[in-house]
């Protein structure tokens, strides 16, 4: 089965539409999964103790953006911040609160990645692997794969085989970069993609 992984949309309607069109062109029968930060919280972390009644005051909501989000997604740090600072009720907030922290798919796990410790230059995560597994994540807005303690920059359009290996796959970001990943769960292969 094929899965199209995309994350870090940050309410960018043009970038999201471009990536979704590319997915439809490259892998029309794939199941799309979001890796969080679908929305952009416009309230900074320094104002996390403030409370807001209207969801329109805390997030970017361009016209037509929500209609593009027809796929399941994990919760990102942007969604967590929106939930924390909202005191009012809203149907969209109810939906955001339901996003899980992790989605399990055949042969892999999907998580945003902000839950882990990150450090260094380049800024890299410490991935808590369980056995030999593939973990798909986002958060840093940088396409990469992590295997055997090494961080590697992938080439777009090239398929990488991970069968029987423990690896972390950063799908990059939709916003600004228009990056996504195609995962084949039968072959455990990953193809990094970039829409125009």
UniProtKB/TrEMBL annotation:
SUPFAM superfamilies: Metallo-dependent phosphatases. Residues 1-149 form the Calcineurin-like phosphoesterase domain. InterPro entries: Calcineurin-like_PHP_lpxH, Metallo-depent_PP-like. Signal peptide: none annotated. Belongs to the metallophosphoesterase superfamily. YfcE family. This is Metallophosphoesterase family protein. It comes from Chungangia koreensis.
């Amino acid at each position: 089965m094929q899965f199209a992984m995309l994350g870090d949309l940050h309410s960018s309607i043009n970038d999201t539409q471009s990536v979704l069109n590319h997915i439809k062109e490259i892998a029309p029968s794939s199941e799309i999964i979001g890796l969080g930060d679908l929305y952009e919280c416009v309230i900074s972390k320094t104002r996390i103790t403030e409370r807001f009644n209207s969801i329109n005051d805390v997030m970017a909501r361009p016209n037509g953006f929500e209609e593009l989000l027809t796929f399941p997604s994990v919760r990102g740090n942007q969604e967590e911040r929106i939930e924390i600072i909202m005191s009012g009720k809203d149907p969209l907030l109810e939906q955001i609160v339901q996003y899980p922290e992790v989605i399990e798919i055949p042969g892999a796990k999907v998580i945003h990645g902000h839950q882990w410790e990150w450090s260094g230059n380049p800024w890299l995560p410490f991935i808590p692997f369980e056995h030999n597994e593939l973990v798909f994540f986002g958060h840093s807005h940088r396409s990469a794969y992590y295997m055997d303690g090494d961080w590697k920059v992938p080439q777009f359009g090239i398929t990488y085989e991970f069968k029987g290996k423990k690896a972390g796959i950063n799908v990059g970001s939709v916003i600004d970069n228009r990056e996504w990943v195609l995962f084949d769960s039968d072959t455990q292969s990953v193809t990094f993609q970039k829409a125009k």
